[in-house]
């Protein structure tokens, strides 16, 4: 309570009369959509390191490009991206998780399945061990069987499953400790307080009074291995739902990577397996049938690739009257990242998938050692995995459909930029040259997308040492864009940077071809003598010269989004001079910061931008209907695409003059 609530007078209160500051938004975060070995399907997962991607999605795979794209993104300067795995949800051929059933004397108890769908789960084996952390003998019991006297209650607590055995008993009995009394040294099978009893409470009767009774606590240790390598040890799994170590709780359904309450990304990785309860009556006590010498293998997994379609990459918009189930069914691929506001780049390389041909049954060729040579050392590297299920090769119509949906989402959201790849055939066509990619370029006319050519050749971690694979370059290009944004700013053209984690391009682009590609808005990936492989182009696929450059469109998208978010405070404010002045000041400060950072053209702020919000553009008629208009004009900086050095003789000296402009055919920047 303040003094103003008690005594009359004049008091001071600090009130911020200014408007909230406008801050630039991140533009370096990418969304990469494609095929992976494992991981949640159609669920965006934030990735900030390669190890994090491996723990969620399993790394690179021979049947997809997503792992290569993510690694290319991270190697070229990207720090954060959202990865989305696509797979078919066909009832018969769609993605399914491997599983195995654990049984006991009373029947099926638990279903253990791989945490995510995919054939990877068929390589998982389980080792089950029974644990008896507490054991004791007793001969003293209550006449009604409600308790037993024990030397020590250590290891026995409320809710502990206990196996009761005696030499003369034909079969052990199962009980649950309802109360452990350390003062009297008693284990109560029926709680003295009826209100505190468990549903398992039952008297311990039917044993021989002259023989000791063995009491053993029972829980389980589960050893999870993948391809013979131990990856997880789960201790103390209980069969009782009331226990904090209840198996389906400890290894329950995988938590989503995004916290629904806070909206923040979770840093944890998924468990390799999950447990589901199969018993209809969990009050019927019993144990699991355990054989320590037997490994239980999961089976029945499917990757969901053979029935993959273009719809799995694009989904469809949901209606306002759709149920949550219908919304989830339509949120596939691109739709899964549509509502994530921090995404600034978009790539879908796997619509162009060219799976590697693998024969899982063909034996390796025989090796005849040379008796004159020493015994060769064992080969190092990853063990090839036999991929039985492969995705289809999508038609040109399917590729165009997916890339058109990418462009549509970018134009609708106005906060992201699509990175397109040409089809495989035109990227390896030595005979027809660039004719095919120019034809593909003619399908698009938008400032929200860029097309890079040709594909890239990278060292293949799946195929082993010396293997090379040709992949689309959109993941690497996304990393170059992100690295440029982080190093300099979104205003700089993402070009003339070395392409990391790449051996070369799938085709050699000549100077003449580069000139033709650049004029048509195709960004070339080519090797420059002495400078390595570089992205030498920063043009959009727009025919509008005002939106020719990638950095101009992305800069304006950032400005529009930042101003749109920062000006939300003005809604329902009085449409008067003070509100207009605060809006003008807020926008001006923001644009002045961009000018000082070199993001805008012009030597002075007056040459770089203008902000107008007065009675001229807010007449009485507009104010009467509740409108406030703020006119903003900016002059984004455009890159030099070529530098011209003029060398000439002036009397007895040599004069060199440099000139350039935002046009040309090379990616060299002054």
Automatic annotation (TrEMBL):
Pfam families: Phage_sheath_1, Phage_sheath_1C. Residues 401-540 form the Tail sheath protein subtilisin-like domain. Residues 542-647 form the Tail sheath protein C-terminal domain. InterPro entries: Phage_sheath_subtilisin, Tail_sheath_C, Tail_sheath_structural. Belongs to the myoviridae tail sheath protein family. This is Phage tail sheath protein. It comes from Rhodococcus wratislaviensis NBRC 100605.
């Amino acid at each position: 309570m303040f003094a103003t609530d008690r005594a009359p007078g004049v008091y001071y209160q600090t009130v911020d009369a200014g408007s909230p500051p406008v801050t630039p938004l991140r533009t370096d975060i990418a969304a990469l959509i494609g095929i992976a070995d494992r991981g949640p399907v159609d669920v965006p997962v934030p990735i900030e390191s390669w190890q994090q991607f491996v723990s969620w999605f399993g790394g690179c795979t021979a049947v997809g490009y997503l792992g290569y794209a993510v690694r290319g993104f991270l190697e070229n300067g990207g720090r954060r991206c959202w990865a989305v795995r696509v797979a078919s949800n066909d009832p018969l051929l769609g993605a399914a998780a491997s599983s195995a059933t654990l049984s006991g004397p009373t029947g099926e108890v638990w279903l253990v399945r791989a945490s995510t769908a995919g054939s990877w789960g068929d390589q998982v084996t389980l080792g089950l061990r029974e644990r008896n952390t507490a054991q004791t003998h007793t001969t003293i019991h209550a006449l009604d069987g409600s308790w037993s006297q024990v030397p020590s209650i250590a290891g026995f607590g409320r809710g502990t499953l206990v196996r009761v055995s005696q030499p003369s008993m034909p079969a052990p009995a199962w009980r649950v400790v309802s109360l452990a009394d350390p003062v009297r040294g008693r284990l109560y099978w029926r709680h003295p307080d009826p209100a505190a009893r468990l549903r398992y409470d039952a008297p311990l009767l039917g044993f021989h009074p002259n023989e000791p009774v063995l009491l053993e606590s029972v829980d389980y240790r589960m050893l999870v291995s993948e391809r013979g390598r131990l990856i997880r040890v789960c201790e103390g799994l209980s069969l009782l739902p009331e226990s904090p170590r209840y198996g389906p709780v400890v290894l329950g359904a995988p938590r989503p990577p995004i916290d629904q309450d806070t909206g923040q990304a979770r840093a944890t990785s998924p468990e390799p397996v999950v447990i589901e309860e199969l018993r209809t009556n969990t009050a019927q006590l019993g144990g699991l049938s355990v054989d320590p010498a037997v490994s239980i293998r999961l089976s029945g997994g499917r990757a969901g690739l053979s029935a993959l379609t273009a719809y799995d990459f694009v989904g469809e918009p949901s209606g306002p009257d759709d149920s949550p189930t219908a919304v989830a069914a339509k949120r596939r691929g691109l739709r899964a990242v549509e509502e994530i506001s921090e995404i600034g780049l978009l790539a879908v390389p796997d619509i162009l998938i060219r799976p590697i041909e693998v024969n899982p049954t063909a034996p390796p060729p025989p090796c005849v050692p040379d008796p004159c040579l020493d015994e060769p050392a064992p080969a190092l590297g990853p063990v090839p995995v036999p991929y039985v299920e492969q995705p289809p090769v999508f038609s040109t119509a399917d590729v165009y459909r997916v890339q058109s949906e990418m462009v549509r989402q970018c134009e609708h959201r106005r906060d992201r930029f699509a990175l397109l790849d040409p089809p495989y055939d035109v990227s390896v066509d030595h005979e027809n040259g660039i004719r095919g990619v120019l034809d593909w370029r003619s399908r698009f006319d938008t400032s929200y997308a860029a097309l890079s050519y040709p594909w890239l050749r990278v060292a293949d971690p799946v195929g082993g040492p010396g293997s090379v694979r040709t992949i689309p370059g959109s993941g690497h290009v996304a990393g170059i864009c992100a690295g440029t944004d982080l190093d300099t700013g979104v205003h700089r053209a993402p070009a003339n940077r070395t392409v990391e984690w790449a051996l070369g391009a799938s085709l050699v682009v000549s100077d003449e071809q580069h000139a033709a590609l650049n004029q048509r808005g195709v960004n070339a990936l080519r090797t420059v003598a002495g400078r390595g492989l570089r992205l030498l182009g920063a043009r959009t696929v727009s025919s509008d010269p005002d939106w020719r450059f990638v950095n101009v469109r992305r800069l304006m998208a950032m400005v529009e989004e930042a101003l749109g978010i920062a000006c939300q405070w003005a809604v329902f404010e009085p449409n008067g001079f003070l509100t207009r002045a605060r809006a003008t000041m807020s926008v001006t400060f923001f644009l002045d910061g961009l000018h000082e950072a070199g993001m805008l053209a012009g030597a002075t702020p007056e040459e770089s931008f203008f902000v107008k919000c007065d009675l001229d553009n807010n007449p009485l008629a507009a104010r009467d209907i509740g409108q406030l208009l703020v006119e903003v004009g900016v002059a984004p900086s455009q890159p030099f695409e070529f530098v011209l050095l003029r060398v000439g003789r002036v009397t007895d000296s040599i004069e060199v003059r440099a000139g350039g402009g935002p046009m040309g055919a090379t990616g060299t920047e002054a």
